[in-house]
Protein: Glutamine--fructose-6-phosphate aminotransferase [isomerizing]
Amino acid sequence: MCGIVGALAQRNVNEILLEGLRRLEYRGYDSAGVCLLDSDGQLQLRKSEGKVADLEARLAASPASGRLGIAHTRWATHGAPSDRNSHPHVSGDFALVHNGIIENHQSLREELKARGYQFISDTDTEVVVHLIHSLADEGHDLLSAVTAATERLDGAYALGVISAREPNNLVCARSGSPLVIGVGIEENFIASDPMALRQVTDRFIFLEEGDVAEVTAAGIAVRDRNGEEVSRPVHKLDGGHDAADKGRYRHYMQKEIFEQPAVVAATMAGRIGNETVLPEALGARANEILPEVKQVQIVACGTSYHAGLVARYWLEDWAGIPCSVEVASEIRYRKTAVRPGTLFVTISQSGETADTLAALRQAKELGYLASMTICNVPNSSLVRESELSLMTEAGPEIGVASTKAFTTQLVALQLFCIALAKVNGLPKDREAELVRSLHQLPELMEAFTGLDKTVQDTSEAFAEKHHALFLGRGVEYPIALEGALKLKEISYIHAEAYPAGELKHGPLALVDADMPVVVVAPNDELLEKLKSNLQEVRARGGELFVFASPKAGFTSEPGITVVEVPDAPESLHPILYTVPLQLLSYHVALLKGTDVDQPRNLAKSVTVE
Ligand code: G6P
Structure:
């Protein structure tokens, strides 16, 4: 999704801006641009459709430098990807970058056109720069022009604005899209994600909704939505320096799959004892709130939604607590009936997903008991706006297709479910059994990543296919959903997931020799039922790829490829069986030659609706 970088320093900021854009590449984008104010007071604009490398080539052919500049990676919403539609947008002496969507752009465009402003792009963004220009011409300085402009905008925005009229100012604003200020020594920066600035600073101010800030080399002045000057805390961020480094791996996704044994361990660290989930695992506030919980509503998008679906099985089984799970873009637009005592739980890797955040804000008006987020990014909007937060310790995830964030979400959710089950009478020996299993998880995860070569061999059967079906039963059904999502995200093969018992209600009509059927088949109480479902597939000539432990009793034969996985405790099955499915999609994508880390049309952090 779109990314913003801006800088004001005593040195040429061109390379800082480009490095910032490179660090944001993982978010997904289709064009990039930069605007620098040069030493002659001229705005130097360079833009290019395609990758940051294409922009760099343009800059090499036509160099630009300056101490003040803004830069952007664009993910098209209004107007196709093109040089013309990419940011920054310029109006006279003003240049601007924008993340988000301006909903009233059409009426503003008409108004500004009538006043003689000429539009050269199809974007919603361009109205904002003309609006700021018109306000400045009415006598506003840059800060007050941006402030007055934001008062006229409906929708979501993070803005970075510079002007040739004020060479020592960088003005930024946020509402609905994230923006941070990176604090340096006699130089300051802005970005949509702190990751973009980790090469220049580890100190950040997180702007709040409605804030407008004036950034100079000497200082930062933030005004809140009422125009009052406010002091926002400076946070020092640790770690994350090497996130942009693939190390010995070919892709970030591959690196992130193999990091899973370590990050699941990090997510449990300090939260479990030998046989118990520690009382401090979820924090003091949680210990007050959990006994009041009568029901749980989980809300998330994409892969995080699948983690929520898994948690529902655990919650209802172990805690006897009813649980609903819904995608954020749906729940936010329907009338919901909230039972007293319902805990509202969001799950998000980024903590910035627009629909999830909107659903949380709406939930606050709807009488939920409290809100909790399971999130991977400290200080993200969801963390700041939720009453409770349980952090996953996946570290920065760069690959657009989520892998380690998902398995760490499952670990955090398992801790949450056990904690809630404890206050609802979970027997001590059952808790001990679950926690002892969790202790085995990192080692088992290592063993599952060890399936890499076997899965690679299996992947060859998929490379020429156009469709695939994923089946699971019970708690493995969401894992089948996640496996199908991974395959479609990065290899562009159409993949569907079904609970195996639903086969004969429709999908069986699709099964033939060209439809590989992937089966998640751990040795659990539904195994025999699953086996009958698989007979239905074989009877129609469908080719089965079964991920199962030796105890499940499958053998490879013509039409059935069994990928044997290590035996493991049942409570860990969903976490562990995810791994070979991740590897499968990765290897199929390699064979197809697709862009594994930045699949077409997708974004890592979806900060617009
Ligand atoms: C995008 C990403 C997915 C992610 C989803 C939700 O679609 O490409 O990988 O699962 O957003 O993101 P979140 O950050 O809220 O988990």
Remarks:
- Residues 252-592 form a domain with the Rossmann fold fold (CATH 3.40.50.10490).
- The mean pLDDT is 93.
